[in-house]
Each structure stands twice: as C-alpha cells, then as structure tokens.
Amino acid sequence: MMSDSDKFTPVIVGFLCNWCSYRAADLAGTSRMGYPATLRDIRIMCTGRLDPTFVLRALQEGADGVLIMGCHPGQCHYQEGNYKAIRRFALLKRVLRQMGLEEERVQLHWASAAQGLLFAETVSRMTKQIQALGPLDWSRNWPNEEPFMLLQPYLHEEAAHGR
Amino acid sequence: MTESRVGVYVCHCGHNIAGAVDVEHLSEWALDLPQVVVARNYQFMCAGTGQELIENDIREYGLTHVVVASCSPHMHEKTFRNACERAGLNAYLFEMANIREHASWVHPNNRSAATSKAKALVSAAVHRVLKHQALEPMRVDIQPTTLVVGGGIAGIQAALEIADAGYPVYVVEREPSIGGHMAQFDKTFPTLDCAACILTPKMFDAGAHPNITLLTYSEIEQVEGSVGNFRVTVRRKARKVREDVCTGCGTCWEKCPVKVVDGVFEAGLGYRKAIYRPFPQAVPKYPVIDVENCTYFKTEKCRACERYCPASAIDFEMQDEIVTLTVGNIILATGYDLFDPRRIPQYGYGRLPNVFTSLEFERLTNAAGPTGGKITLRDGETEPRSVAIIHCVGSRDKAYNEYCSAICCMSSLKFAHLAKEKTNAEIYNFYIDMRPIAKGYEEFYHRILAEGVHFIRGRVAEITDAAYGPEEAGKLVVVAEDTLIGRQRRVPVDMVILAAGLEPRRDSQAVSHLFGVGCGDSGFFTERHPKLDPVATVTEGIYIAGACQGPKDIPDTVAQGAAAAARVLGVISRKQVLLEPVRASIDESRCSGCRVCNNLCPYNAIEYLAEPGVSRVNAALCKGCGTCVAACPSQAITGAHFTFDQIMAEIDGILIDVSDREQSPIEVLA
Known about the structure:
- The complex is a heterodimer.
- Chain A is of the alpha/beta class.
- Chain A has helices at 21-30, 52-60, 81-98, 116-133, 152-160, and strands spanning 12-17, 39-44, 65-70, 106-110.
- Chain B folds into 5 domains: 6-137, 3-Layer(aba) Sandwich (Rossmann fold), CATH 3.40.50; 148-229 and 322-335 and 507-574, FAD/NAD(P)-binding domain (3-Layer(bba) Sandwich), CATH 3.50.50; 251-308, no CATH class; 337-503, FAD/NAD(P)-binding domain, CATH 3.50.50; 584-639, Alpha-Beta Plaits (2-Layer Sandwich).
- The chains are: A alpha/beta, B alpha/beta.
C-alpha cells in the first residue's frame, strides 16, 4: 500500500471521456471505492478528441504512465469516437514501442458510467504494473551500442510487407 | 490586454472534502500558482453565501478567471457558471477541479496523497482556465411541430398530450395501423380490463385529432439537423389504396381471393387477405395491398378488389412517396420485439406444435382472434386439459438476456387466470422468482394462487414429447427441478405457453444511429440519467418513451409517453434553446482541403467547399466530440472549450510537481 514510503509512487495521467469513464470515476467517488492516488485525470469530451501528442506531452512532462478511458465500443456518446481512438492508439503504441516504452505505461480501457468499480480496479491494476516497472526512464530499454537497434523488428516487418 | 487575475475557491463540502484534503494548505498553496490573486476556502461553496463570496471577489479583485475546487462538474458546473455570469464574468472563463469524487472520496485514509492529488488538479484547472476564452451559448429557435416515432400506446399517449396542448404532431408508424402490441392483447393485468376497450378510443382520438397527422405504413429514412430544427425524411410506402376516397367499407378484402398467413397481427395463427386491414378497429381504417402476395402483382390478373370497390379507391400504380418533415423535437416510442423462443431449442417451440408463445396465446384467447377467443391446441379444436406456463423464457438467463423482462410474471398470471377460467384446465406456472412489483400486482398473484393454479419454483430444463410412461403418452412433458422440494419433476401437459421476454427491436442499433441516441449493451435506448432524466437522451431534442428504453408494462409505458410529451412541451414553450458552445470550427486559412475530417464526423457536420477548396463545419450539426480536431493534420480545426492549448496547459499544470525530469527522447527527437 501507499503507506510503504520506500515504494515508488507513480504518476499516471488519465484522459477520461466526459460521458462514460469520467462518470465512472465520479461513481467510484460517490460509492467510496478507493484506489491508489496515482491517477490525475483530465476530462475530454470523447476519446476521439485524444490527440496522440497529449500522451507524448504527459510522458515528457513527468508522467510515469498514461491511462486513456472511454465508452465501451458501440456505446460512444458520439457514436464512434472510441473507434477512432482505438485506431490512433494502435499507431501511437507502435511509435512508443519503437522508442522502447514498456507496454504497460500507456493503456486504453473502457468503462461505462455505471462501472465505478471497474474504473477503480483499472487504476489499481495499472498502478501495480507501473510500480513494478519503476519510474519512467526512456533510455533503460535502449540497447547500449545502437539506439536504433530498437527499430530492427519493425524494419523486418516492413521488409516482409515488401516495402 | 489586461493581465489575467485568477481566483481559486476551495470547498470543504463539510467533511466530504476537508476530511481527507488539507483545504487550508491547498488554498494557501494555490496563491503561488500563475496569475492567482486570491485563493479562499469555504465550508460550502455551492451555498448561496459561497457563491456570493465568489461574486464579490470577481467585482472587488476584477477577476478575469475563476477556479472552484469542489465536486464533479456534472454536479455543480452550472451553479458556478451562473454565479460568474451574475458578477459579469463570462461563464466559460470558469473551470472546476473535481477534488471530491476524484480525490477526497477515493483516498479517504491518506491525507497527504489526497492533498497532493488535489493540488495537481487545482494546478491543472488554473493552467487551463488561463487559456479559456469567453464563449456564448448558441440560441436555436424551436419548431413547434413534434415527430413521434412509433404508434403504440407510448407514441399515442405522447402524441395526444402534445396535440391536446395545441401543438402539431406527426406520428410515423411502420405498420398499416397504429396500436402496436397492445392492440394484439386480450386482457390487461391486473385489472383484467380488455385491451381493445381501453386502447381503441385513444387510437380513434389520435386518428381524428386536428393536431395529429398519422403517417402509417411509413418508415424514416434520414434524420438531419438538431434540436429545434430536425429535417426528417419519411418514406410513405404505397398502400395501393387512395386514402382520400376509401371509405373502409371492407368490400375489397371480402372479394380478395388470396389468403395469407398473418404473421404480424395474428402472430401466425390466423389468416388475412392480400388486401387487408390488420384488425377491425385499425386506425386509419384504410386497407393496404400486400404486393408480395397479391395475384395482380404476381400475374397481372385478378383486380377483384378494384372491380368491386364502390369508391374506386384501388390504385395499382401508386408509388412510394418521400416526404420531408421539419420538426423541433422527436420522441422515439419504437417498442420491443418478442424474444424468439426458437433460440432455446430444448423448449421445442416451432418443433412441438402445442408449444405457444405468449403473443400467440394472447391471440388465441382474444375474442377477435382466430379462434374467436376459444383456447385450443394447434389443431384449432381440442381444448387443453392441462397447461404449463414457463416464465423467464429468454430473460434472466446469461445465455440470452441477463435482464428481467418485467412483464412476464404478470402476463403469466393473467394467462393462468384466463386459461383456468375458460377451460378449467390444470395450470402449472414454472417460475424462478415471482416479481409482481407494482400497484395491485401482489394482490393479483394471491388471487391467482387462490384460484388453484399450481406454482413450481424452478427453471424448466426441457419440454419433450418423449414419454417415460403411459401417463405421459401423447403429452408434452415439462422437465424441471422443483427447487422448493429439491426434486426433479416431470409434468405432462397438453399445452405449453412460453412467456417470452422483451427484446429491443432487431433494428434498434440502426435506429439509434439514425437518431444519434445511445444504445446500451442490451440494445435498449439509453436515457440521459437512469433516475433523474429517464425520458431524455444525451441528444438534445430527442426523447424516448416506452419499451424501447427497457422492458416495461402498460402503466409505465403510458407514464413515459406523457413524461416525454411534457418535456417536449417545455422546450416548445421556451421557444428557444441554449446549446453548449462546445463546437468545432475550421480556420480556413490553415485548411489544406485534404478532407480527412469530412468522413470522420459521425454527424456529417463537415462539408467540403470545392470553390475555396476548404472544409467547413456546420455549427448546427456539430456536437462537439472533437474527433476532427484531433485528426486534422494542419491543426486547422479548433474545438471550442477543448482547444489544443487548453488541454496542453492542463497537462502541464497537472504535472507541475514532477515536470523537472530529465529530457525525454521526445524532446530529443522533436
């Protein structure tokens, strides 16, 4: 628990959509479902509004992780904004992988306005995962000899596609 | 430009916030945030005295921006925006930090962590609010005409309420007559008054009302616009009968030689003609030609109806007509579909002839139905001597629908009563739990118990015609575990009625997309708030009523129809609505005309103008989701109140205590 002062307390920036996940967070509050005080959330109208540079900025400014949460697929308030978010997220993750960022640091999840518990559990789980990883240190996963070695798997993939 | 002056107001919310967050320290700390000139903490910011505190400071300190750190913006954003407005500050130069739901209430036992998080949230709000711009809500004139989609009891009730108040209503109904499911029923629980006796006068009123225009046998193809001004395209399917001259005399269907199984109104138990009126009390009274089965449309011969029609109302050449309606508000009352019990093969529906659905039984027992109200087996003659009624078919079952369909307990009790009364058969109700939950329902249950109906508590495993002994020969055997005595039971009966659950209309997803309303997991339309706003949807100007929102009985359906009408009347009488100015706009000087945004918009609000070669947002259609804003490769699109600069500032603010990290590769690569 947080009382263990030696343990690293991560900082996670959350991007929550106004209609589902922000309300799920509100519900977690009204229902007093506690979770670690690691998440600092920002409300956006829809995960479709999430410009990938927001995630990069948060990581650049000191966040150890970024949690994006929206409405469940098929339940977007704006019909399909979360599908756009899925597509952008996939591309963003590809870039982040190439930079050596661990998978768990940037996550996309869904919670309906009725799922306060799921929201709290998601934050708790992600907190544990990032605690295990430690503070964000970009260079940790870079090969010593050549940072661009990270790109190797992707170069193979590109070659396989004949490009 | 004058310098920004920010006021920060930290709410104790009694102990709700102050119990976990050090509010004194927080407000003191906030003074060091950029441009903050005053920071206070107070017991209840939302109270009149709290709001006055803010208003006085705005005037006294000449505040240009205000941050309130209290509860969720969904709770009190409006309250504090109004306070700002009263003091002469634009409502959108205000921002809220949610330190209750998102901090004190979820970190109650860790004061330092809760306070640190509250600091981050306040800092984010201060950084963000400094980038805010004054905005004006959009004013939209309201068309006084309303569209009601669906002519069942919910739609009829809603239409009558609005029409009686003096405003015009269109009712669009897919079938040839209004009336919906209720018109098919025999009796209604728990009072056992006849459905037709209470429904048909309302149908007649709706048909004859000077303010109501019925568009039956019609479907909606397109919906454009937004609250106040929806443009709705309706396809009026060709009846092949001229409504202006038809008298509804009935000669045509008497003379029509083609008999067709009536799969809609008679639930497949009876016949109708190829030219037909679904039922005698249909509104409107005009028949319709079923083109698929009409001999003339198949072979170009016959024309009997035309020959005998005394009014010359038959028009074989009639084509579908497209009409466009302009309406201010829309009420969706599209009803439900019955669960198809074929999906549970072990119940034998469709395979074992004497297994009936609830709707089939309604028609069987209806005096106007195919048997004249005589309860018989599928042969149309034999009266059953024993009847099993199976509750929760397709409901309360994770394999089908997890939810309770709300009406089946009561309609099963009604069936038990009717079958007992008419046939004196032994009746067995197989239930999981009895849920007679509304006024007069429990009393009805006790009445049926007293009538000698058997109740067996257990979900039915199987209905089979494989007999184990002579007493089961030729019978349907209902196999269930009686959970009250802890034993398997086999009950041989002549007839089984499956109390099938209510499901969303099979096209409810498509309809929800057409109107821009949400659809939950189950497929029922989503209300704006499950408790406090049950008939509004998240789309302004679109309301829902009846079983399209979730399974419900007739009293609740009527109540929702009236409630939706009341909401619409409220909007109409205001003559104008104010809409949040959270909208996208395109800087045409930066737009390259790439059209990436055009197809992303779920509301078709962005159009490409070939002449200047740029895209433009139609503010009346834009709902402010911001998907186009994030997608624009030229950053030419701005999402008001959620601009790039505002969110970036919020990110910087929220990380104020940790942003002194080493350089990241993003900076290196940038």
